[in-house]
Design a protein that fits this description.
Elements: H1 15-21, E1 28-30, H2 43-50, E2 57-63, E3 66-71, E4 87-91, H3 99-105, E5 116-124, E6 139-145, E7 147-153, E8 176-180, E9 185-188, E10 193-199, E11 211-218, H4 223-240, H5 268-281, H6 287-296, E12 320-322, E13 328-330, E14 334-337, E15 340-343, H7 346-358, E16 360-361, H8 363-367, H9 371-382, E17 386-388
Antiparallel strand pairs: 1-9, 2-3, 2-4, 4-5, 5-11, 6-9, 6-11, 7-8, 7-10, 12-16, 12-17, 13-14, 14-15
Helix pairs in contact: 4-5, 4-6
The structure holds succinic acid and cobalt (II) ion.
Residues 133, 135, 194 line the site of cobalt (II) ion (CO).
Length: 391
Protein backbone atom coordinates (compact mmCIF):
# COMPACT_ATOMS: atom_id res chain seq x y z
CA UNK A 1 0.00 0.00 0.00
CA UNK A 2 1.26 3.48 -0.85
CA UNK A 3 1.18 5.13 2.57
CA UNK A 4 1.56 8.61 1.04
CA UNK A 5 -1.68 8.37 -0.97
CA UNK A 6 -4.79 10.05 0.49
CA UNK A 7 -7.60 7.64 1.37
CA UNK A 8 -11.36 8.21 1.62
CA UNK A 9 -11.17 5.55 4.35
CA UNK A 10 -9.18 8.01 6.47
CA UNK A 11 -11.24 11.09 5.55
CA UNK A 12 -8.72 12.28 2.95
CA UNK A 13 -5.65 11.76 5.12
CA UNK A 14 -2.77 9.63 3.95
CA UNK A 15 -1.97 6.62 6.16
CA UNK A 16 1.24 8.45 7.04
CA UNK A 17 -0.71 11.51 8.26
CA UNK A 18 -3.24 9.38 10.08
CA UNK A 19 -0.55 7.48 11.97
CA UNK A 20 1.23 10.70 12.88
CA UNK A 21 -1.81 12.69 13.98
CA UNK A 22 -4.36 10.18 15.28
CA UNK A 23 -2.98 6.69 15.94
CA UNK A 24 -2.83 6.16 19.72
CA UNK A 25 -3.45 9.91 20.15
CA UNK A 26 -6.91 11.17 19.25
CA UNK A 27 -10.17 10.03 17.66
CA UNK A 28 -11.04 10.52 14.02
CA UNK A 29 -14.59 10.59 12.67
CA UNK A 30 -14.83 9.83 8.96
CA UNK A 31 -18.13 10.35 7.18
CA UNK A 32 -18.52 7.88 4.32
CA UNK A 33 -15.17 6.21 4.90
CA UNK A 34 -16.51 3.47 2.63
CA UNK A 35 -19.22 5.15 0.51
CA UNK A 36 -22.27 2.99 -0.07
CA UNK A 37 -21.01 0.31 2.34
CA UNK A 38 -23.42 -2.56 2.89
CA UNK A 39 -22.99 -5.42 5.37
CA UNK A 40 -20.65 -8.17 4.18
CA UNK A 41 -22.74 -10.76 6.01
CA UNK A 42 -26.47 -10.49 6.37
CA UNK A 43 -28.22 -11.10 9.68
CA UNK A 44 -28.84 -14.77 8.88
CA UNK A 45 -25.16 -15.40 8.08
CA UNK A 46 -24.03 -13.59 11.23
CA UNK A 47 -26.43 -15.58 13.43
CA UNK A 48 -25.18 -18.71 11.65
CA UNK A 49 -21.63 -17.92 12.76
CA UNK A 50 -22.80 -17.25 16.33
CA UNK A 51 -24.31 -20.76 16.37
CA UNK A 52 -20.91 -22.39 15.75
CA UNK A 53 -18.96 -23.61 18.78
CA UNK A 54 -15.57 -22.56 17.37
CA UNK A 55 -16.75 -18.95 16.94
CA UNK A 56 -16.56 -16.67 19.97
CA UNK A 57 -19.84 -14.83 20.53
CA UNK A 58 -21.59 -12.97 23.34
CA UNK A 59 -25.08 -11.68 23.99
CA UNK A 60 -25.48 -8.47 25.99
CA UNK A 61 -28.83 -7.27 27.27
CA UNK A 62 -29.77 -4.27 29.31
CA UNK A 63 -32.85 -5.09 31.36
CA UNK A 64 -34.73 -3.49 34.25
CA UNK A 65 -32.74 -5.77 36.58
CA UNK A 66 -29.43 -4.61 35.09
CA UNK A 67 -26.87 -5.87 32.56
CA UNK A 68 -26.84 -9.51 31.45
CA UNK A 69 -24.10 -11.21 29.48
CA UNK A 70 -24.14 -14.70 28.01
CA UNK A 71 -21.43 -16.52 26.07
CA UNK A 72 -22.29 -18.31 22.82
CA UNK A 73 -22.72 -20.46 20.85
CA UNK A 74 -26.33 -19.45 20.23
CA UNK A 75 -28.50 -22.07 18.57
CA UNK A 76 -31.30 -21.12 16.18
CA UNK A 77 -33.86 -20.25 18.86
CA UNK A 78 -31.62 -19.07 21.68
CA UNK A 79 -31.40 -15.38 20.76
CA UNK A 80 -34.11 -12.92 21.90
CA UNK A 81 -36.82 -11.99 19.40
CA UNK A 82 -35.92 -9.37 16.82
CA UNK A 83 -38.88 -7.35 18.09
CA UNK A 84 -37.41 -7.29 21.58
CA UNK A 85 -35.44 -4.07 22.18
CA UNK A 86 -31.99 -3.40 23.60
CA UNK A 87 -30.00 -6.53 22.96
CA UNK A 88 -26.67 -6.92 21.23
CA UNK A 89 -24.99 -9.96 19.72
CA UNK A 90 -21.20 -9.67 19.39
CA UNK A 91 -19.36 -12.06 17.09
CA UNK A 92 -15.56 -12.08 17.36
CA UNK A 93 -12.93 -13.10 14.77
CA UNK A 94 -15.28 -12.96 11.78
CA UNK A 95 -12.26 -12.54 9.47
CA UNK A 96 -11.15 -16.09 10.36
CA UNK A 97 -14.35 -17.54 8.98
CA UNK A 98 -15.36 -15.24 6.16
CA UNK A 99 -13.22 -14.27 3.16
CA UNK A 100 -15.10 -10.96 2.67
CA UNK A 101 -14.39 -9.94 6.25
CA UNK A 102 -10.73 -10.94 5.81
CA UNK A 103 -10.59 -8.79 2.65
CA UNK A 104 -12.00 -5.78 4.54
CA UNK A 105 -9.12 -5.95 7.03
CA UNK A 106 -6.61 -5.64 4.20
CA UNK A 107 -7.58 -1.94 3.95
CA UNK A 108 -6.02 -1.40 7.38
CA UNK A 109 -2.61 -2.89 6.60
CA UNK A 110 -0.91 0.48 6.90
CA UNK A 111 -0.64 -0.72 10.51
CA UNK A 112 1.81 -3.63 11.06
CA UNK A 113 0.18 -7.07 10.99
CA UNK A 114 1.70 -7.72 14.41
CA UNK A 115 -0.84 -5.20 15.76
CA UNK A 116 -3.94 -6.30 13.86
CA UNK A 117 -6.28 -8.51 15.85
CA UNK A 118 -9.64 -9.24 14.31
CA UNK A 119 -12.98 -8.10 12.98
CA UNK A 120 -15.82 -8.19 15.48
CA UNK A 121 -19.36 -7.66 14.24
CA UNK A 122 -22.15 -6.51 16.49
CA UNK A 123 -25.85 -6.75 15.78
CA UNK A 124 -28.21 -4.71 17.95
CA UNK A 125 -31.91 -4.07 18.19
CA UNK A 126 -33.05 -0.49 18.90
CA UNK A 127 -31.62 0.78 22.17
CA UNK A 128 -28.97 -1.97 22.22
CA UNK A 129 -25.42 -1.26 23.35
CA UNK A 130 -22.75 -2.64 25.63
CA UNK A 131 -22.71 0.36 27.97
CA UNK A 132 -20.16 3.13 28.52
CA UNK A 133 -16.69 1.57 28.65
CA UNK A 134 -13.16 1.86 27.38
CA UNK A 135 -11.07 -0.68 25.51
CA UNK A 136 -7.36 -1.21 26.01
CA UNK A 137 -6.72 -1.31 22.29
CA UNK A 138 -7.09 0.85 19.19
CA UNK A 139 -10.30 0.30 17.26
CA UNK A 140 -11.98 1.47 14.06
CA UNK A 141 -15.77 1.34 14.46
CA UNK A 142 -17.30 1.07 11.01
CA UNK A 143 -21.08 1.35 10.77
CA UNK A 144 -22.29 -1.35 8.39
CA UNK A 145 -26.05 -0.79 8.53
CA UNK A 146 -28.64 1.11 10.53
CA UNK A 147 -27.61 3.96 12.79
CA UNK A 148 -25.62 4.09 16.01
CA UNK A 149 -25.29 7.07 18.33
CA UNK A 150 -21.78 7.27 19.79
CA UNK A 151 -20.91 9.32 22.84
CA UNK A 152 -17.19 9.57 23.45
CA UNK A 153 -14.86 11.29 25.90
CA UNK A 154 -11.33 11.36 27.31
CA UNK A 155 -12.42 9.98 30.61
CA UNK A 156 -10.06 10.58 33.55
CA UNK A 157 -12.08 8.57 36.07
CA UNK A 158 -11.83 5.03 34.73
CA UNK A 159 -13.47 3.35 37.74
CA UNK A 160 -15.88 0.59 36.82
CA UNK A 161 -19.28 -0.40 38.16
CA UNK A 162 -19.18 -3.28 40.65
CA UNK A 163 -21.18 -6.46 40.33
CA UNK A 164 -21.87 -6.29 36.59
CA UNK A 165 -20.77 -8.96 34.12
CA UNK A 166 -19.31 -6.30 31.79
CA UNK A 167 -16.82 -3.49 32.17
CA UNK A 168 -19.11 -0.47 32.59
CA UNK A 169 -17.78 2.96 33.61
CA UNK A 170 -19.20 4.30 36.86
CA UNK A 171 -19.16 7.99 35.92
CA UNK A 172 -19.05 8.36 32.16
CA UNK A 173 -18.77 12.00 31.07
CA UNK A 174 -19.09 12.19 27.29
CA UNK A 175 -17.58 15.18 25.49
CA UNK A 176 -18.80 14.57 21.94
CA UNK A 177 -21.71 12.82 20.28
CA UNK A 178 -22.17 11.59 16.72
CA UNK A 179 -24.70 9.46 14.90
CA UNK A 180 -23.00 7.09 12.46
CA UNK A 181 -24.73 5.85 9.34
CA UNK A 182 -23.71 2.99 7.07
CA UNK A 183 -20.23 3.68 5.68
CA UNK A 184 -19.24 6.13 8.47
CA UNK A 185 -16.31 5.20 10.69
CA UNK A 186 -14.90 6.32 14.03
CA UNK A 187 -11.31 5.63 15.13
CA UNK A 188 -10.72 5.53 18.88
CA UNK A 189 -7.33 5.26 20.57
CA UNK A 190 -6.89 2.95 23.58
CA UNK A 191 -8.67 3.91 26.82
CA UNK A 192 -10.89 6.50 25.10
CA UNK A 193 -14.32 6.09 26.73
CA UNK A 194 -17.28 5.39 24.46
CA UNK A 195 -20.90 4.34 24.49
CA UNK A 196 -22.75 3.34 21.31
CA UNK A 197 -26.52 2.97 21.24
CA UNK A 198 -28.42 1.49 18.32
CA UNK A 199 -30.94 4.05 17.06
CA UNK A 200 -34.35 2.92 15.88
CA UNK A 201 -33.98 2.96 12.12
CA UNK A 202 -36.42 2.11 9.36
CA UNK A 203 -35.21 1.20 5.88
CA UNK A 204 -36.71 2.32 2.55
CA UNK A 205 -38.92 -0.80 2.60
CA UNK A 206 -40.51 0.26 5.89
CA UNK A 207 -38.83 -2.58 7.82
CA UNK A 208 -36.50 -2.08 10.80
CA UNK A 209 -32.96 -1.60 9.57
CA UNK A 210 -30.50 -3.78 11.51
CA UNK A 211 -27.86 -1.86 13.44
CA UNK A 212 -24.58 -3.59 12.64
CA UNK A 213 -21.21 -2.21 13.66
CA UNK A 214 -17.86 -3.62 12.56
CA UNK A 215 -14.98 -3.24 15.02
CA UNK A 216 -11.58 -3.51 13.39
CA UNK A 217 -9.60 -4.25 16.52
CA UNK A 218 -5.89 -4.21 17.28
CA UNK A 219 -3.81 -6.05 19.85
CA UNK A 220 -0.84 -4.85 21.86
CA UNK A 221 1.21 -7.24 23.96
CA UNK A 222 1.45 -6.45 27.66
CA UNK A 223 5.03 -6.04 28.87
CA UNK A 224 5.06 -8.66 31.64
CA UNK A 225 3.06 -11.16 29.60
CA UNK A 226 5.45 -10.74 26.69
CA UNK A 227 8.49 -11.13 28.96
CA UNK A 228 7.09 -14.27 30.52
CA UNK A 229 6.16 -15.80 27.16
CA UNK A 230 9.49 -14.92 25.52
CA UNK A 231 11.62 -16.04 28.46
CA UNK A 232 9.87 -19.41 28.42
CA UNK A 233 10.45 -19.71 24.69
CA UNK A 234 14.07 -18.57 25.02
CA UNK A 235 14.69 -21.22 27.65
CA UNK A 236 13.25 -23.87 25.32
CA UNK A 237 15.29 -22.43 22.46
CA UNK A 238 18.55 -22.56 24.46
CA UNK A 239 17.62 -25.99 25.86
CA UNK A 240 17.06 -27.36 22.37
CA UNK A 241 20.77 -27.74 21.84
CA UNK A 242 23.02 -30.08 23.77
CA UNK A 243 23.91 -28.16 26.88
CA UNK A 244 25.84 -30.89 28.60
CA UNK A 245 28.73 -32.87 27.10
CA UNK A 246 26.51 -35.96 26.54
CA UNK A 247 23.73 -33.96 24.88
CA UNK A 248 21.63 -33.86 28.03
CA UNK A 249 20.48 -30.86 30.01
CA UNK A 250 23.25 -29.38 32.10
CA UNK A 251 22.43 -29.81 35.78
CA UNK A 252 23.56 -27.64 38.65
CA UNK A 253 26.56 -29.22 40.37
CA UNK A 254 27.95 -28.36 43.78
CA UNK A 255 30.86 -30.68 44.43
CA UNK A 256 32.51 -27.97 46.55
CA UNK A 257 29.43 -27.26 48.69
CA UNK A 258 30.55 -27.44 52.33
CA UNK A 259 28.29 -28.86 55.01
CA UNK A 260 25.93 -26.04 55.98
CA UNK A 261 24.70 -24.97 59.40
CA UNK A 262 22.05 -22.76 57.63
CA UNK A 263 20.20 -25.21 55.34
CA UNK A 264 17.43 -22.76 54.40
CA UNK A 265 19.84 -20.30 52.81
CA UNK A 266 19.92 -20.27 48.99
CA UNK A 267 23.52 -21.06 47.94
CA UNK A 268 25.20 -18.16 46.16
CA UNK A 269 26.59 -20.62 43.59
CA UNK A 270 22.99 -21.51 42.67
CA UNK A 271 22.31 -17.84 42.01
CA UNK A 272 25.40 -17.70 39.77
CA UNK A 273 24.17 -20.82 37.92
CA UNK A 274 20.76 -19.16 37.42
CA UNK A 275 22.39 -15.95 36.17
CA UNK A 276 24.45 -17.88 33.65
CA UNK A 277 21.39 -19.86 32.51
CA UNK A 278 19.43 -16.64 31.80
CA UNK A 279 22.46 -14.98 30.21
CA UNK A 280 23.08 -17.99 27.94
CA UNK A 281 19.43 -18.06 26.89
CA UNK A 282 19.86 -14.50 25.56
CA UNK A 283 23.39 -15.03 24.19
CA UNK A 284 22.40 -15.94 20.63
CA UNK A 285 21.84 -12.52 19.06
CA UNK A 286 19.00 -13.86 16.89
CA UNK A 287 17.21 -15.80 19.61
CA UNK A 288 14.98 -13.02 20.91
CA UNK A 289 13.90 -11.88 17.44
CA UNK A 290 13.23 -15.49 16.55
CA UNK A 291 10.98 -16.30 19.49
CA UNK A 292 9.22 -12.93 19.17
CA UNK A 293 8.29 -13.66 15.55
CA UNK A 294 7.19 -17.17 16.40
CA UNK A 295 5.01 -15.86 19.21
CA UNK A 296 3.45 -13.06 17.15
CA UNK A 297 2.51 -15.45 14.34
CA UNK A 298 0.97 -18.15 16.56
CA UNK A 299 -2.48 -18.85 15.09
CA UNK A 300 -5.47 -17.95 17.25
CA UNK A 301 -6.49 -20.64 19.73
CA UNK A 302 -9.65 -21.46 17.77
CA UNK A 303 -7.76 -22.02 14.50
CA UNK A 304 -6.65 -25.34 13.14
CA UNK A 305 -5.64 -26.06 9.61
CA UNK A 306 -6.82 -28.94 7.48
CA UNK A 307 -4.34 -30.57 5.16
CA UNK A 308 -4.40 -29.30 1.57
CA UNK A 309 -7.53 -29.97 -0.44
CA UNK A 310 -6.16 -28.83 -3.80
CA UNK A 311 -3.16 -30.34 -5.59
CA UNK A 312 0.22 -28.70 -5.23
CA UNK A 313 0.43 -26.59 -8.38
CA UNK A 314 3.15 -23.98 -8.11
CA UNK A 315 2.82 -23.27 -11.82
CA UNK A 316 -0.88 -22.48 -11.49
CA UNK A 317 -1.56 -19.30 -13.51
CA UNK A 318 -3.31 -17.56 -10.60
CA UNK A 319 -0.39 -18.15 -8.23
CA UNK A 320 -0.56 -18.97 -4.53
CA UNK A 321 -2.14 -17.17 -1.60
CA UNK A 322 -2.01 -17.51 2.17
CA UNK A 323 -4.99 -19.02 3.94
CA UNK A 324 -6.88 -16.08 5.53
CA UNK A 325 -6.12 -17.55 8.97
CA UNK A 326 -2.38 -17.82 8.35
CA UNK A 327 -0.22 -15.31 10.15
CA UNK A 328 2.99 -14.51 8.30
CA UNK A 329 5.62 -11.93 9.23
CA UNK A 330 9.35 -11.47 8.80
CA UNK A 331 12.42 -9.66 10.09
CA UNK A 332 15.88 -9.15 8.62
CA UNK A 333 16.94 -12.74 9.28
CA UNK A 334 13.77 -14.82 9.51
CA UNK A 335 10.44 -15.56 7.98
CA UNK A 336 7.69 -16.54 10.42
CA UNK A 337 4.56 -18.45 9.57
CA UNK A 338 1.97 -19.74 12.01
CA UNK A 339 4.36 -19.96 14.93
CA UNK A 340 7.29 -21.45 12.98
CA UNK A 341 10.50 -19.63 12.04
CA UNK A 342 12.77 -20.09 9.03
CA UNK A 343 16.17 -18.53 8.38
CA UNK A 344 16.04 -16.96 4.95
CA UNK A 345 18.56 -15.01 2.88
CA UNK A 346 18.91 -13.48 -0.57
CA UNK A 347 16.33 -14.11 -3.29
CA UNK A 348 14.39 -16.67 -1.27
CA UNK A 349 14.01 -14.23 1.63
CA UNK A 350 12.78 -11.51 -0.75
CA UNK A 351 10.21 -13.93 -2.20
CA UNK A 352 8.91 -14.97 1.22
CA UNK A 353 8.79 -11.35 2.36
CA UNK A 354 6.67 -10.55 -0.68
CA UNK A 355 4.33 -13.41 0.18
CA UNK A 356 4.01 -12.05 3.73
CA UNK A 357 3.32 -8.45 2.63
CA UNK A 358 1.03 -9.18 -0.34
CA UNK A 359 -0.32 -12.50 0.97
CA UNK A 360 -0.10 -13.78 -2.64
CA UNK A 361 2.66 -14.86 -5.01
CA UNK A 362 1.95 -14.47 -8.69
CA UNK A 363 2.78 -17.16 -11.22
CA UNK A 364 5.62 -14.93 -12.51
CA UNK A 365 7.10 -14.63 -9.01
CA UNK A 366 6.81 -18.37 -8.53
CA UNK A 367 8.63 -19.04 -11.78
CA UNK A 368 11.70 -17.34 -10.31
CA UNK A 369 11.54 -19.30 -7.02
CA UNK A 370 14.51 -21.54 -6.19
CA UNK A 371 13.99 -25.30 -5.70
CA UNK A 372 14.51 -24.80 -1.93
CA UNK A 373 11.85 -22.08 -1.80
CA UNK A 374 9.45 -24.23 -3.81
CA UNK A 375 10.02 -27.17 -1.45
CA UNK A 376 9.16 -24.95 1.53
CA UNK A 377 6.06 -23.61 -0.22
CA UNK A 378 5.02 -27.20 -0.97
CA UNK A 379 5.30 -28.05 2.76
CA UNK A 380 3.20 -25.02 3.70
CA UNK A 381 0.64 -25.95 1.08
CA UNK A 382 0.44 -29.51 2.43
CA UNK A 383 -0.13 -28.10 5.93
CA UNK A 384 -3.06 -26.06 4.62
CA UNK A 385 -1.34 -22.70 5.28
CA UNK A 386 -1.18 -21.77 1.61
CA UNK A 387 -3.44 -22.47 -1.32
CA UNK A 388 -3.97 -21.89 -4.98
CA UNK A 389 -5.12 -18.31 -5.55
CA UNK A 390 -8.48 -17.91 -7.21
CA UNK A 391 -8.12 -16.51 -10.72
C1 LIG B 1 -20.58 -2.59 19.65
O1 LIG B 1 -20.31 -2.74 18.46
O2 LIG B 1 -21.73 -2.63 20.08
C2 LIG B 1 -19.51 -2.34 20.65
C3 LIG B 1 -18.20 -1.99 20.10
C4 LIG B 1 -17.37 -1.27 21.13
O3 LIG B 1 -17.85 -0.45 21.86
O4 LIG B 1 -16.15 -1.49 21.21
CO1 LIG C 1 -15.55 -0.60 22.88
Amino acid sequence: MDVTQTLALLGGLTPQQFMRRHWQKKPLLVRQAIPGFTPLLDRRELFGLAAQPQVESRLVQQQAKGWRMKQGPFGPRSLPALSSPAWTLLVQGVDLHDARAHALLQNFRFVPDARLDDLMISFATAGGGVGPHFDSYDVFLLQASGRRRWKIGRQKDLSLQDGVPLKILQNFEPEEEFVLEAGDMLYLPPRYAHDGLAEPCVGADGKANDCMTYSIGFRAPAKTELASELLQRLADFAGDGADGPDGRQLLYRDASQPATPTPAEVPSSLLEFAQKAVHDALKDPLALACVLGEYMTEPKASVWFDEALDDWAPRHPAGLCLDPRSRMMYDADHVFLNGESYRARGGDAALMQRLADQRVLTAAELRRASPAALALLADWHAAGWLMRASA
